[in-house]
Design a protein that fits this description.
Elements lengths: L6 E2 L1 H18 L5 E5 L5 E5 L8 E5 L13 E8 L6 E5 L2 E2 L1 E2 L15 H15 L6 E6 L3 H5 L4 H4 L1 E2 L1 E2 L7 E2 L4 H17 L4 E5 L2 H10 L8 E3 L4 H10 L4 E6 L1 H8 L14 H10 L4 H9 L3 H10 L4 H17 L5 E7 L6 E6 L5
Parallel strand pairs: 6-9, 7-11, 13-14, 13-15, 15-16
Antiparallel strand pairs: 1-12, 2-3, 4-5, 5-9, 8-10, 16-17
Length: about 350
């Protein structure tokens, strides 16, 4: 997507708000604009607003053209000297999440501020407070942050009370696949750190809802919306010591997995009619089903003909081959079961497990 406007991460906005708040604390006058450094070294300037307290500063997040639920968030920082602490303490106020589970690389009970933003904030504050001044507390808050967090994966990750302060480059790139990939990795890591050995992967909200209906007894942390990043999730599950995967999705993605395509974005892969035809032949499906395998470029048509003819065996075989491909991708390190749901995510249509033995 070219020509789209980039924006700023919550981490960048937090570093700007923190620096402005500390400058207000040190000088008694909050600045109208503040300059901070990105991880690349590039320096950028933000307008600053606030109330009568010069040690409180607000930077309004601009996510550019990215459909980010935190776009327009009023990232607020309040600075105060600390009598008993050491260095700079970053705290969570209203609307900022608090960590309650291991696996995020953050202390339980701490503000959900990841490593790069922490470094950015500390460096920005040091520019106005110096390294040898008294200890500082900086408390972040975002009005409406808890409602914003409902549109993220924070609840599943055990981050409660609001949004996280995130970012690796300081810049939001619209529709960033890197950001989604990082989210998948983070979710699997948290499940593994919690001792879970089964992870449930789904491609989107409808298949995720179906997965939760299938396994309601599981902790919500076990469910991960992987989008197109099945391969990433599988590798991470192995690295975390997990043993089992339940993958839930629809016919199109399953057909791609069956063909050995573990990055399933429509622009990077396509449904191979030969794969659909092979499962139709192997299952002894009616002629109409075999014809549907190559009549169009969509697995949906094949799915619909199979279900209309009550020919579920090809779909079950497709699930089995997808499971086998996933298992082969990680060298047999995971037991994998693939479940196909309909295009509303309302009903389980077929499933197939990869053999556990090599």
């Amino acid at each position: 997507m070219t020509g789209l406007r980039t924006g700023w991460t919550t981490g960048t906005c937090a570093s700007a708000a923190a620096k402005a708040a500390v400058e207000g604390l040190v000088t008694g006058a909050r600045p109208d604009h503040i300059e901070v450094a990105l991880p690349s070294g590039r320096r950028v300037t933000f307008p600053v607003v606030g109330d009568a307290d010069p040690a409180t500063a607000v930077v309004v997040k601009d996510a550019g053209d990215d459909p980010d639920c935190t776009d327009g968030a009023h990232m607020t920082a309040a600075a105060a000297w600390s009598a008993g602490g050491q260095g700079i303490e970053l705290r969570a106020g209203d609307g900022i999440g608090v960590v309650t589970r291991p696996g995020l690389g953050l202390a339980i009970g701490s503000a959900s501020i990841t490593a790069v933003p922490r470094r950015m904030i500390t460096a920005a504050v040091a520019e106005v407070a110096g390294h040898d001044r008294e200890a500082l507390d900086v408390t972040f808050s975002v009005p409406g942050g808890e409602e914003m967090a409902a549109h993220t994966s924070n609840a599943r990750l055990g981050i409660v009370g609001g949004i996280s302060i995130l970012g690796t480059t300081g810049i939001v790139r619209p529709f960033s696949t890197a950001a989604y990939r990082a989210s998948v990795v983070q979710q699997v890591d948290v499940a593994a750190a919690g001792g879970e050995r089964l992870v449930v992967l789904a491609t989107g909200s409808r298949s995720d809802a179906a997965a939760q209906r299938l396994r309601p007894e599981l902790d919500p942390v076990c469910f991960v919306e992987v989008g197109d990043y099945t391969g990433v999730a599988l590798r991470r599950a192995v690295a975390g010591g997990m043993t089992d995967v339940l993958w839930v999705g629809m016919a199109g993605k399953i057909a791609k997995l069956a063909a050995g395509v573990l990055m399933t974005h429509f622009r990077r892969s396509f449904v191979d009619g030969a794969v659909l035809a092979s499962v139709a032949v192997a299952a002894g499906a009616p002629a109409e089903v075999l014809a549907a395998a190559t009549e169009t470029a969509t697995a949906r048509h094949f799915f619909e003909v199979c279900t209309e003819r009550s020919a579920i065996a090809p779909l079950a075989l497709l699930c089995q081959r997808a499971a086998e491909a996933c298992r082969a991708y990680v060298g047999g390190a995971l037991a994998v079961d693939v479940v196909m749901v309909d295009f509303d995510g309302a009903a389980v249509v077929a499933r197939g497990a990869a053999p556990v033995t090599p």
